[in-house]
Design a protein that fits this description.
Elements lengths: L7 H56 E5 L19 E5 L13 E5 L16 H12 L9 E9 L3 E5 L3 E4 L2 E2 L7 H4 L14 E5 L4 E5 L9 H4 L4 H5 L13 E2 L3 E10 L5 E2 L9
Antiparallel strand pairs: 1-2, 2-11, 3-4, 3-11, 4-9, 5-6, 5-8, 6-7, 9-10, 11-12
């Protein structure tokens, strides 16, 4: 006796079960596809972040880098003050790979050893805080923990720089034209009485491969004049910087780059003046 054929109800139930299984399978496939796309998006995002960080690192290392101006030595060209937030400048690290610094360039450089006497670390003793400070320094939000300085090139290798009350600052005997100086900033009421904005010095014969640098805020700048060597006899007469010319000059190898423009604050956006003081 042959089997009893399925009833219409049982056939319908199997069809519904098959449809349900197909729907579940489709949902599972969709969920798997979404998960795969999500993982792919996350992986792509991570790759893009790594590439962006790598490119940024290469830019900071070889092309340009932001620096914070922590002192007032370059006012009014660059604003800054000890212990407070100052201008942030973008420093071109590429140009001097092909050319040498010229008179009037505003440069960032590593202080020579004799310029670092008394320098103390500005980093916290707390490892976590120090790590954050170093990370912020990398992008120019806090000063680097090294004696990086910013000054203006006044004389280059082979030139002779000096200052006398009768002539003012000269290079190779020629008075300089310095429109970036501001008497009010330097608090100099009578420039005819203080033409050296401090003390008389030189003559200094700048060695080849080195530069003589000074801050635009001459009365508040620890620059080449402060770090130079003195002959005892000349020092007694009030003339400084007549000894070893290497002490007060900066090696070209120490120069990190040229200040190109002010990146922060927005109210001061603009280029950094590079006026050659040796031209009329």
């Amino acid at each position: 006796m042959s089997g009893t054929p399925d009833s219409p109800d049982s056939s319908s139930e199997r069809t519904l079960d098959d449809d349900a299984e197909e729907a579940i399978d489709e949902q599972a496939d969709e969920a798997a596809d979404k998960s795969k796309r999500r993982r792919g998006a996350v992986r792509e995002g991570v790759i893009l972040v790594v590439i962006a960080v790598g490119l940024y690192y290469l830019m900071l290392t070889f092309i340009a880098r932001p620096y914070l101006i922590p002192s007032e030595s370059m006012e009014p060209t660059l604003h800054g003050c000890a212990g407070c937030v100052g201008d942030r400048i973008m420093v071109d690290k590429l140009s001097y790979r092909f050319t040498k610094p010229s008179p009037g360039d505003v440069v960032v450089f590593k202080g020579p050893p004799n310029w670092n006497a008394g320098y103390k670390s500005i980093r916290s003793d707390n490892p976590a805080v120090r790590w954050v400070q170093n990370a912020l320094s990398f992008v120019g939000f806090v000063p680097p923990d090294e004696n990086d300085l910013v000054k203006r090139v006044i004389a280059t290798g082979g030139q002779t720089v000096e200052c006398r009350q009768s002539t003012g600052l000269t290079v190779d005997g020629k008075p300089l034209n310095e429109p970036y100086l501001d008497l009010q900033t330097m608090n100099v009421p009578d420039p005819d009485r203080y033409r050296c904005f401090g003390f008389e010095f030189g003559p200094v014969n700048v060695p080849d491969g080195r530069v003589w640098v000074m801050g635009d805020n001459r009365t508040h700048s620890a620059d080449s004049r402060v770090h130079c060597a003195d002959n005892a006899a000349d020092f007694q007469s009030g003339i400084k910087c007549t000894g070893d010319p290497n002490a007060g000059t900066v090696p070209l190898d120490n120069i990190i780059g040229k200040a190109r423009f002010i990146a922060w604050p927005p109210s001061r956006w603009g280029g950094v003046s590079s006026v050659d003081p040796q031209t009329d």
